[in-house]
Every structure is written in C-alpha cells, then in structure tokens.
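Re: the 354-residue chain
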Amino acid sequence: MTKEFTDPWGSTMETIFVDGSAGEGGGQILRTSLTLSCITGKSLHIENIRAARRNPGLAKQHLSCVRAACQICNGQSQGAAKGSTVLDFQPGPVQSGDFHFDIGSAGSASLVIQTLLPALFLADKPSTVTVTGGTHNPLAPPFDFLNETFLPAIETAGFQGSCKLIKHGFFPAGGGKITFNIQPWQKNTGQIIDLCQKSKEPQIHARIYTAKLPEHVAKRQRKLLLQSGLSIRNVEQIEVEDSDGPGNCVMVRLCGSERTTVFTAFGMRGKPSEEVISEVVSLTEAFLTSEAAIDRFLADQLLIYMAIAKAGSFTTNEFSSHLQTNMEVIKKFLPVDFYVDRQKQAYRISCQRL
C-alpha cells in the first residue's frame, strides 16, 4: 500500500510501505523494493526485513545491495546496519557510470548485480558494474546461470548486457569477482518477453567445478551423473585454481536451439556426492517432464523486466511462493498486474499494464 507520512528527512512525500515478512519473507523482497524505488523515484519504507529467515534483518550481502542502490542514484538510507529489520530509502535520479562494490564476505555478487540491473538498463548511457564476493553460492544464481540463461532471456525484450567472470568465489571463502556491462534499454524495438514454448529435445550437458578438493570428488560426481538416467552428452570437469577457498558445484545444462537452462547443486562439508547429484538431477527431471519453457528460478527474475515493459509472458513448471511474493511487491510500485493460468503441466504467467 501507499502511505503518506513524514519521512526521516523531514519532507512529506509518497512512500511505498513494504512488509518484509509477507509471503516467502526473504531478501528478494528487499532487493526488488530497492530496484523499483530507484526506477520510480518513490521512497521506500520496509519493515520486518527477512523475517522468515533464521537470522532476520540485514546481513552483509543485503547491506551491499542498499549501499549499491544509494550509489547508482545518489540516494539516502536510514537503518542500513547489520541486523536491522527496518529500512528507509530515498532515491535520487539513476545515473550511469563505472561502479565497484565489495561485499566483504562470500555474499552473492549476482544478487547485488541483479538489484542494480533493472535501474541501470533505464539510464541514458552504458554502465559497468564490478562486484567482489561469491560467484557460485548456494541459494543464489551462479555466474553460469546469469551468463547462459538469464541474460539471453531478457535480451529478447531489448535488455542487452554482458558479463565476465574475473575470479571464482565459492562459499564460505568468497573473494570472487564479476563484471557486468549494461546498455540502455532498447524499448523502441517493441520486443517483449515471450517464452511460452518448450524447447524441443535439448541436448543435456554437465559441468563440475571443484576447487582445492581431492581429485576423487569430481570423478565420483561424474560417475554418478552418467548413471543418473539423464542422457548426458558430455561432462566438463573444471578444476578452479584461482579460488580463495574450497568449493564444489555440479551443473546440468539443457541446451536447446532457443535457450539454455542451467540447474545447479552445491557440494559442501558433510554432504555426500550422491545427495549433490540427486538434487541437480531432480531439478532437471522435474523441468523436463513439464511443458514449461523456463525454470522456476528464471521465472522469478523475469517478472520485473516484464513489468518495466508492461507486457510479456512465460510458462514455468512451478508457481512458487517466491514468485507470488515478487509479483505483489512489483504491483506496489508499477501500474501492472500479473495473471496466472494453470495449465496441464505448466503455469502461464503474463503481465499487462493497468
């Protein structure tokens, strides 16, 4: 809802109130709210930040998102402290530039970048964003997903960018680095996100990353992948030499003529390789047996780009609480609505202007 009240800087203005405990109650509510505040110029008041998480409030990664949002629009914030559950944010005009951010932990670099991307796409000149932190983190999009799945998907609606992995960073050591180049949105092309048709017979490839781990880990995971029942054409094994600490993740890549879908599972201390492989194979099989064009992780990230264009649609194999919560946050800021059509083996999500 929209409230009229005196903000912390002493002026009476329209402020969007967001309850961070709504829906899935995680950090995505904060990131989406910051992005849309930058885009619309509306101030943000958010309470109960990450209320549904084991350690509620702002962590280093979320503070990096707040500081980064302030920098790209010369904004101001109050409550930006570790553990804070309340934040006030007042944006200024978004400016293009060459931005550098260091999370200072293994927090996800990709989530900081995704907080800034929609606003920087709307700037009048190109921008570059470099973030130091985690590049391959559990519960966050790894670099490969950004590069191979996310960017090609939004490019279909005129949002053009490129990214480069400078250094790998695994949890918990971090220390990785990603650079993004962002071009102004080509909104006059009339293109919209229209990802409703399932890819036909995609080739299945796998990728195993290991850093500072015994050689037998990758060998074991490769063997399990090939025994999984998926028709995997090849398994690429990458021994990462530039990582500050140990790390392991396994990716299954569905490479179709229209798009590439990347699923990832992460290894960690005490987690058997059998569990890692079972996790990534289960994600892949659930998607392949549906009629969906895009996976549930990409679905959540496309909503804001459809809302900016005030049009678009896609089909996905799961209507998650994460997806539904993100819809509700977006509708607080932008004059759009989302429609969900339950189909036999997929959900069709569409966006229209009000």
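The radius of gyration is 20 Å.
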